[in-house]
Amino acid sequence: MTADPAPKGLSVCLIAAEESGDRLGSALMRALRAQAGDVAFSGIGGHEMLSDGLRPLVRINDVAFIGLGMLTQLPAIFRYIREVADAVVAARPDVLVIIDSPELTHRIARRVRKQAPEIPIVNYVSPSVWAWRPGRARAMRGYIDYVLALLPFEPQAHERLGGPPCSYVGHPLIERLDELRPNADEVLRRRSDPPALLVLPGSRPGEIRRMTAVFGDAIGLLKDRVAPFEVIVPTVPRLKNDVVAATANWAVQPRVVTDAAEKWAAFRIGRAALAKSGTVTLELALSGVPMVTAYKVALFEAVIARMTIKVPSVILANLVLGENVIPEFLQWDCTAGKLADALAPLLTDSPERRRQTEAFARLDKIMEIGSASPSKRAAEIVLACAKNPGSGHLASGAHAVSA
Question: What is the pTM of this model?
Answer without folding.
Answer: 0.84
